[in-house]
Structures are given as C-alpha cells and as structure tokens.
Amino acid sequence: MDLQIAAALVPLLGWAVHGGILTHRLAAARRDPLTGLHTRAGWTARAEHCIRRHPATAVLLVDLDHFKNLNDTHGHAAGDAALIATADRLRTWCGRHGTAGRLGGDEFVAVVRDPAAVNLDALTTALHRPLPYNGVSLPLAASVGVCRLAELPVPLLTDALAAADAAMYAAKGRGRRGSRLSR
Fold first, then answer.
1. What range(s) does the GGDEF domain occupy (predicted)?
2. pTM for the structure as a whole
3. Is 106 a catalytic residue?
4. Which phi and psi angles does 102 have, rounded to 5°?
5. Secondary structure (H, E, C), the chain
6. Which of 106, 114, 159, 165 is catalytic?
7. How many CB atoms lie within 10 A of CB 146?
C-alpha cells in the first residue's frame, strides 16, 4: 500500500473507533446499570416521541412501598433484587405497547401508547407478587399513579408526570398497594 494512502487512513480509522466508543458510552448512559431500564434521559426522549405520535398515551409513575424497610430488614442485596424484579415486571407489562424506565431509587415510570391494550390491574397484581429471595419470600408492594394524556388540556410530558405523581400519592394515601388514575 502506498505510504501516503496509509497515512491518510490512520486518522480516519482513529475517528471511526472514537465514534464507536462514544456511541457505546451514550447508549450505556441511557440505561440503568442495575435494572437495564432506560434512565430518565433515555425514557424521556422515548416518552415524548410516543406522546407526539399517539394521542391516547398514558404515563405511569410507580413507587415501591416500604422499600426502606425491606432494605433495612433484608439488606441492600435484597433491595437490589426487588428493584430488578420490579423492573422486569414493569418491562413485561409494557411489552410492545410502551417503554419503562427507572427515575432513580425505587421510582419507576412507564409510557404506554394505548392504555386500553394493557391491563392496569394485571400490573398492580404483578408488582405485589412476593419475591423469592435466599429461601424467603420478600413482600413487594407498589403504588401506581396513571395519567391519560387525553385528560390533559395540553398533552405535555411534564404535566402528565405531575398528574401521575399526584395520583400515585393518592394511591399511597389510600393505604398503599394500589393504583389510581389522575383526575
């Protein structure tokens, strides 16, 4: 190979490798390392896209109940197992109808294109199923708040999250272990 051609190709190869590394890092930054769900940034981008394309979209906010007690009683590894199980259950429930994410701590979020295609009671049941862990059955519970974008005057993600948050806290106020639609 001509020396001049080789000298010209080396920087191009370097830039290609560098671009690949940056792409991989960006993708990794948009995934929660523990659960594999989208992080806030990754989920937000997908949710906003979903809202633009599907006017019947619903946004859900999920908060594990008594998570601190589970961590304090059974240890942080058990807490991690609970977070992973919750993520798996939420991801499975969303299926091909939506996208799940982890906002942080024990807070999860989901957006579904067609709320009629998914069963909210099935999600609540799944989130309340005990988790087998090291020979014991860990009790899991979650409060779920739901906002259907069609109920908002302007279908914005920030408003939907605020309404889902209020509905989630209303579910917690009813004694937890439930779900609530925004009103």
1. 55-183
2. 0.80
3. yes
4. -115, 120
5. CCHHHHHHHHHHHHHHHHHHHHHHHHHHHCECCCCCCECHHHHHHHHHHHHHHCCCCEEEEEEECCHHHHHHHHCHHHHHHHHHHHHHHHHHHHHHHEEEEEEECCEEEEEECCHHHCCHHHHHHHHCCCEEECCEEECCCEEEEEEEHHHCCCCCHHHHHHHHHHHHHHHHHCCCCEEEECC
6. 106
7. 25
